[in-house]
């Protein structure tokens, strides 16, 4: 399992696109200058702020004690460990420090994204993220009964749901094949830099009352966000020692294939010149089911399994199938990580 095992699980937004305007936050821990957002239309920024602030289960609270339980001289903000996840935390920090240009950590009243939530007077309904569908959404009730659905999740999955995009001027335009290809190139560019790529979109929902079930409406592509999770410094050497001892190290992750390959290269897990194979969980499942269909397919499957060291967009079932097939191959398997299911 990758996140928090091979990486530090210290995620921060470092680059991306709002509409078609690229941004780069070189020092995500600092308060950036307004130049980052100079060319972003206000309407696009407002939609992104609302979507990221409300479409999240993370929550920040004021902490007045240290790790030893003793009171501290200066209170500080801390994420609740029982709410949300590190990806959501990074996106909300991005809202506070970049989109709303408010990075004062000494303000103990509320964070900027919390003020956005408090200002949503007409209510909103959240539909949580699942590993199967790779996205989450929120429907927000606005003035006059207007309902807006905000969606965020795996960039490739969210892009599939869109038929329009936000242009550089902030206008909604049809998502043509050429523009879809351009966005895919942007996604791959960020992923090849070992970023987790998050797509953000929105759509208008018919009706005036908040829905009890998640609506399905055509979406407008709004933003692409690249989140960096630094590799643990000791990982490449640990992987090398395992390989020297005859242990094959394989990585499973929910990230897309390009991001997974980029990170596994940094770790020393994946080497294309060595003949290593990387694939998605869906591709792996298909190979396993085909292999069970005939002995001939099973014979073709084993060499692929031997060289497969990276599984992207994996679900819990994919990890179970991987362990099962390796054990059928006669391998001794150990699984580690906080997301091994």
Automatic annotation (TrEMBL):
Localisation: Membrane
Coiled coil start-end: none
Keyword annotations of the record: Magnesium, Membrane, Transmembrane, Transmembrane helix
One Pfam family it belongs to: Cation_ATPase
GO cellular component: plasma membrane
GO MF entries: nucleotide binding; P-type calcium transporter activity
InterPro entries referenced in this protein's UniProt entry, alphabetically: ATPase_P-typ_cyto_dom_N, ATPase_P-typ_P_site, HAD-like_sf, HAD_sf
PANTHER family: CALCIUM-TRANSPORTING ATPASE, CATION TRANSPORTING ATPASE
Protein name, entry field: Calcium translocating P-type ATPase
Organism, as annotated: Trypanosoma cruzi
Gene name tied to this protein: CA2
